[in-house]
């Protein structure tokens, strides 16, 4: 990320920026903190952000999104509606005014199945709840790590395992363009998904849910490798992870 903190100032809300580059830097001002670390990895960056967050609630942001007008009130109203909530997830709207993905029209409590559909920028967390439960991002997953995806699902699944309460709220809080190109479903993709399933469920009764998820991946027409190789790479990833 750009090591210059000036471009991140001027927001009406408290901002914490984590930068990963070769220059370590720290800037702390009223409602603005910029921390630069000589390390790589998306989950490492997010954990640094959670460790240094000073407010009650925190959102996971990105440099190509815009927050919707009144998003702060929507978030506060939602936590008032669900006072036992530790994590809430919301909706993304595109610049064209369309839903980023298919969403429920009603609020609901998340389970181990629904969290597969959550994107990181939809998530709002109570910092104290995460720290008390010792929930963090698994640094083996996410861009810049051994397995480049699945970090959000693991994070939310760990939160459920620790007894935290997660709810979906059908309100738009961020605007984000649709991805111009689809994901490349190659050897690395399926290896990462196999590792994700093992990390999520180990040998527990929920493992069947993971295999159902994998089966859907195998059927995607955008696969760049054969079905046989997709299964083979998924098993490689699955067997590379120790039980949790």
UniProtKB/TrEMBL annotation:
Keywords: Transferase
Glycosyltransferase 2-like domain span: 27-106
Listed GO MF terms: transferase activity
Matches recorded under InterPro entries: Glyco_trans_2-like, Nucleotide-diphossugar_trans
UniProt keyword Transferase present: yes
Gene3D superfamilies reported for this sequence: Spore Coat Polysaccharide Biosynthesis Protein SpsA, Chain A
Domain of life, source organism: Bacteria
Name the record gives this protein: Glycosyltransferase involved in cell wall biosynthesis
Protein's organism: Algoriphagus iocasae
């Amino acid at each position: 990320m750009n090591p210059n903190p000036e471009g991140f100032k001027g927001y009406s809300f408290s901002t914490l920026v984590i930068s990963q580059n070769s220059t370590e830097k720290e800037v702390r001002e009223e409602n603005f903190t910029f921390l630069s670390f000589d390390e790589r990895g998306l989950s490492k960056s997010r954990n640094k952000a959670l460790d240094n967050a000073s407010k009650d609630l925190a959102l996971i942001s990105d440099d190509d999104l815009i927050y919707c007008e009144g998003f702060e009130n929507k978030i506060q109203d939602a936590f008032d509606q669900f006072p036992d909530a530790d994590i809430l997830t919301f909706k993304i709207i595109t610049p064209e005014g369309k839903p980023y993905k298919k969403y429920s029209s009603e609020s609901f409590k998340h389970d181990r199945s629904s969290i597969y559909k959550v994107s990181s920028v939809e998530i709002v967390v109570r910092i104290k709840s995460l720290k008390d439960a010792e929930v963090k991002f698994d640094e083996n997953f996410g861009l810049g790590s051994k397995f480049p995806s699945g970090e959000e699902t693991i994070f939310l699944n760990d939160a459920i395992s620790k007894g935290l309460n997660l709810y979906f709220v059908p309100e738009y809080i961020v605007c984000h363009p649709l991805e111009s190109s689809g994901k490349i479903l190659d050897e690395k993709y399926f290896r990462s998904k196999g590792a994700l399933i093992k990390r999520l469920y180990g040998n527990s009764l929920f493992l069947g849910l993971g295999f159902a998820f994998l089966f859907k991946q195998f059927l995607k027409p955008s696969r760049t490798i054969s079905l046989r190789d997709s299964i083979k790479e998924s098993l490689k990833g699955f067997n590379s992870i120790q039980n949790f």
